[in-house]
Amino acid sequence: MNSNFKKITALLLLLALLIPTFAACAGGDTDTGSADTTAAVTTATPEDTTPSLEDIYPIPEMNYDGAEFNMMILRTGYWGQDYNDLYIEEDTGDAVDSALVSRNRRVEETAGVKLTSTETAAVVGDISRLIKADDSTYEMVQDQAVSIMPSMASTGLLHDITTIEGITLDAPWYNQKAHDSVTLSGKLFMLGGDATASDKQGTAAVMFNKKLAEDFNIPDIYTIVEEGKWTLDTMAEYAKAVTADINGSSELDMDDRFGLIAEDFFGWNFLIASGCKIAEKDENDLPYFTAYNDRSMTVLEKIQNIMYDENIRGNAIKGGTWEAENYEIVFGENRALFHANVLSTIAGYRNMESDFGIIPQPKFDEAQEDYITTISPFVSRFLAFPINNGDIEFIGNVVDLLARFGTDTVKSAYYDVLLTSKVARDDASERMLSLIFDSITYDVGSIFNWGNCWFIYQQHFTAKKDNFSSTWASIEKAANKQIEKTIEKITE
């Protein structure tokens, strides 16, 4: 309810209570003489004492006299996954780039620093060599989660972020869900939040082609999602209804129409969306494997039946290699009902002529209470801080400004322009994106990838294996050994 409306209502009620009093004074037998019977009614507006974010998290006074803050940034050239959301030299006119330039100038002016960056295709290798040579040039690095954690955090090459003063981890401009999921023994080695958009780029989702949905009389998919009925079985049912040999070759090939297209690694994504994880953490914040148990095997069997069926998933056909452009062509030509992928790829379809919607990954069944979303640790990128750079205060203050000022610049541009304005094409898709982001969970097993415990899922689905027990047995010993080494290193 509008606050002005509340005030007016309160005033009217007060006047109603006072009117009988006025009437009694005016019509009674007592002589009031020249007494003033007019009552003055005033309302006091209470001061808003709610503290602002600036009150809770004040910006400390700082001036580093033009000192350089050096960042090492991953650049791979891989389609849909090569982005720079930390530093660019000039404003290109793109909304995200403009926001990035604006944010960086504000940081430089506030802290009295000069931001610089070096791009490389091998962050872990390059920074590891510099650390061993005691070269402390770089205050911060950005890399894939699955590269940072097993190769650097597990070997003692990174600062524990919880010890870096100035980084206000409880502030709203940090990725609390990610941090809670990947701490080990209370220590944190990768940072996500509003300093960048790339920690969100690996978020999994499903696109659906609106024309095909209409052509095949598919019920309103948004309603299905909102009623909690969007499940693996529902997806498979609709996918089968759409898949067909449309080029007359008597067998399904890449020129035909499919119900679902999805890379092999999405078998693991569907597993996470069904409530299973490779690893969990115990009461001491230490990891243990949960990949192989009765429920995960039941879930995996259903996912395999979907992933391996060519009448459901286009990638299951014999022959042909599905590259990034194949997905774009097939979906863009209205030859796929569902396309499961990550947001960095989906964002690349913003100029697609055919209309599409965005929905979360399906639940295992309707008994599952919530939708669950996760990220690809290969696609999403996070920030980390080399252990040999000891100027903790400098790092903390500058990084906190990057995240704080990124909220209304980098994050806003990513969400409001790239997603809701250019990609999400209706109000329902915007609601779906909110649902997706609100339901993100992080699998510590996939991010640390002990003994290739995450990579084996892609290998399993690529090889179309049925027996996961043998797949898990092939890496179990090495994975347990590595998880023990990580725990030992983290807790020493």
Describe it:
This protein has helices spanning 3-27, 53-56, 95-111, 123-132, 145-151, 176-182, 210-215, 221-226, 232-242, 266-273, 294-307, 324-332, 343-347, 392-404, 407-419, 427-438, 444-448, 455-462, 468-491; strands at 67-74, 113-120, 140-144, 204-209, 258-262, 279-281, 287-289, 336-342, 356-359, 381-384. With 492 residues, it is an alpha/beta fold. The chain folds into two domains: 61-200 and 378-425, D-Maltodextrin-Binding Protein, domain 2; 204-372 and 449-491, 3-Layer(aba) Sandwich (D-Maltodextrin-Binding Protein, domain 2). It has a four-stranded mixed β-sheet, sandwiched between helices. The longest helix is centred in the N-terminal third of the chain and has 25 residues, at 3-27. It starts with a helix and ends with a helix. The relative contact order is 0.16. Residues 1-40 have low confidence and may be disordered.
Concise account of the structure shown:
With 492 residues, the protein is of the alpha/beta class. It contains 19 helices and ten strands.
User: Can you tell me the number of structural domains?
Assistant: 2
What sort of overall outline do the alpha carbons produce when their principal axes are compared?
globular
Mean pLDDT: 88
CATH superfamily heading of the largest domain: Periplasmic binding protein-like II
Secondary-structure content class: alpha/beta
Number of helices: 19
